[in-house]
Task: structure prediction
Amino acid sequence: MELLFDITKFDSYREDNCREVKRANGGLPISLWDTYSAFANCCGGVIILGVKEESDRSWKTTGLKSVDKEKLLKEFWDTVNNYKKVSANILSDDDVEVYDVGEDIVIVIYVPMARREQKPIFINNNMFGGTFKRNHEGDYHCTDLQVKSMLRDQTESTMDMRIVESMTIDQLDRDTIQSYRNRHRSFKPGHPWINLSDAEYLQKIGAAEMGRDKELHPTVAGLLMFGEENRIVREYPEYFLDYRELLDPSIRWTDRLQSSSGEWSGNLFEFYFRVYNKIIKNVKVPFKMAGGDRIDDTPVHRALREVLANCLVNTDFFVPRGVVIKQESDMLILENPGSIRVGKYQMKIGGESDPRNKALMKLFNLIDIGERAGSGVPELFAVWQQEGWEEPQIEERQDSVERTIVTLSFKKKAAEKSDEKKCQKSAKKVTKKTLGQYEIILTAMEPGVWYQASEFVDILGVKWSRTKILLRELVAAGLLEEDGATKGKKYRKPEN
Result:
């Protein structure tokens, strides 16, 4: 868990996406609850009472004293437990701390990210008017679309499991179904579903279900995967897939693929493979050799398959602007509507999978795509580290609708060699496997954020004792800093 506040670093902090200061002289400020809602609906944050921001953005205490503490804390707990003011209290006693700063006190409220089944967290008994999100240093009202998206994400059954009773399976694209079945057969030649009829097969894979009329109908996942665009948009008017290639600055688009063109089916299955083949053609990755044989499927290819599938299965197809994949000469950008359900921090460290469209994920998994649930993103970072490319960037853009943006650069990272040399210098013998483990740890860490050893056990796939050794070696190499006693020790990557 990210360490958001350390009293010893008080003078170095500034307001940002996860830190907010408020005066609180004379009582709790009304705006506190806007910020509580905003942090809870995003990735969490800290609210520091008894502090103001100066014109140079530095912090200064406002003169709260110990005698103010009990009154403010009582007012806070009374309000946060009042459902007419706050929709849900997601805090425990441990989430509120009081610190001395000189002769003054500050009250620090740690607001965690709410679970998706708790969202939206809203105030004043007004879901659509009292739901907030955080954007940089400010809190803003969520749009109705954003609130509805959070409501859809509450349920365990994802929207792609719904039966589309207005359609029959005969309205699905037969060529796409056969292409899918051929890939499944190639991947799992002896699978018991291979010889089933199309109707039985679609039902087995979750692409079709019996409706209330006792007839077989496509599920949303089946429609998105195997339908034709003109039928998909009848159910989801905002559905749109767009691949844009800009390899020559003198030409607006060197290549473009849109689901609405009418030149192909426009469904997810065909879009995935058309785009993937374009991407790997433009990404220059040297082939590898094993036993004298050429290996064209490198870790980069596997990472690209994972990240493209991840983009599609986490799309909110109810909101506008659709999926956009942009290919430039040295960069690949993948955008999809919808926030990251597990939060950006959890997404980067891996170990937890919560796709927005579970049935779609299953359909991709059956043909050997996106099968590394909860580990695809950490592996992506590790592969990019191994290639010496600039670190992938993950952004949640808060606009009228929310979008997740993953930027993959193919430019060489200047500092890559020096880091590796430091690791090698710190030990008498460093194996290739150990260097890879170093890279996984360093890639998963955000600069300036404190982590515990336990957070890396799963993503490394090694014992806790081995994880501790690796972290100590990185500290010795000067790549990490450590803090605390043996029990509860934390580690971080320096900011500079």
User: Anything to note?
Assistant: The longest strand covers residues 104-111. The chain has three domains: 7-154, 161-409, 416-492. Residues 245 and 251 are 10 Å apart (CA to CA).
